[in-house]
Amino acid sequence: MSASNQHRFLGFFLSLTTAALWGMLPVALKELLAGMDAWTVVWYRFLVAALVLFFWLYFRKELPNLMSVSNRTRWFLLFAASGLCINYFTFADSLNYVNGETSEALIQLTTLFLILGGVIVYKEPFVAVQKIGTLLIVIGLLLFFHDRLVEFTSFENTQTVGVFILVNSAFAWTIYALLQKQLLGSFSSPQILLLIYVFSALVLAPFIAPSLLFSLSEFELLLLLFCCVNTLVAYGCFAEALKLWDASKVSAVLALAPLFTIGTLKIVVYFNPDYAFSDRLTWLSLVGALLLVVGSVLTALMPVLTEKKAVAPNSRVTAN
Q1: Residue spans per domain, the chain
Q2: 84 closest CA partner among 24, 170, 20, 165
Q3: What is the structure's pLDDT at 239?
Q4: Helix (H, G, I), strand (E, B) or coil at 98
Q5: I want to staple 191 with a disulfide (CB 3.0 to 4.6 A). Which of 19, 64, 231, 294 is the partner?
Q6: How far is residue 290's CA from residue 286's CA, in Å, rounded to a whole number?
């Protein structure tokens, strides 16, 4: 196998690992919330990630220097940190109202919001492939919730509250993602994440109950450990994948995360038919989830498809 093929395979494997970890995360969080509140769960995730990243960057002598950047960059960092902090908390909190399948399906709105953000903020073109992808995402969401749409008309329904929280979570993540593009000119990805994790751990500190750690069962402790490790490993694999493979292709693989959520819960329900935290999706909802993934993949692959379309005419001219 050539070095190029090895890089492509490793990039795909790392991207798939990230998608699997992100897909299994809501399943673990849903169980963990029975013994620990969302504020504290997210705080522990930020704290562990911040400590590991700090020591890693310290020994590499790559700790970020906030004084070396402009005030504008520091403001961007503040808003990006707020966005990711809100995203982490609201995603976890939404699981008090909805199950894992719903949370992972709705968080795909980040794809749609990111497209719109790119068009509005960075004046990026809104090409045909993106329009098709957007349409598939909208149709996919309607099919996914086809049997619950009437319930969403009232805020007295807990599912409606969860959906509202998830929409805000997706919006908050989009703010972080759009601002990270600006921050990468001043900091590396690990440096940005370290600063965000430290900021978030400090902001959440007044609202937490760290002593809940000692009241968790062994299984819940393992779930908390998984959630903390998930943060580090998933983002680590994601960063390495971007070094080895095209960002658009990495994003396309990450769009598979909802399938891992649904697959994980299908396995859990198979072995435990009485499991309470699953939506028992109908076939129409499963088709909707598939359309969501296809729409997200199409949108993510847009740069590659556009590039091939541009290269093709040149190839024909050369051949003539």
Answers
A1: 3-314
A2: 170
A3: 80
A4: coil
A5: 64
A6: 6
**Residue pair 78/117 in contact by the 8 Å Cβ criterion:** no
Residue that the structure tokens 């697959």 belong to:
263
d(CA 162, CA 93): 8
Global confidence as pTM: 0.87
User: Can you say how many angstroms the Cα of residue 191 is from the centroid of all Cα atoms in its chain?
Assistant: 19
> CA 304, CA 308: separation in Å to the nearest integer?
6
Residues 53-70, mean pLDDT to the nearest whole number: 94
- The angle subtended at Cα 296 by Cα 96 and Cα 175, nearest 5°, is 60
* Mean pLDDT, rounded, of the chain: 87
Amino acid at the residue 8 = R
194 in Cβ contact with 50 (< 8 Å): yes
Which tokens sit at 39? Answer: 């504020």
Which ranges in the chain belong to alpha helices (H)?
3-32, 38-59, 71-94, 100-106, 109-121, 128-144, 158-183, 189-204, 218-244, 247-254, 257-271, 283-300, 302-319
Pair 146, 284: CB distance under 8 Å: yes
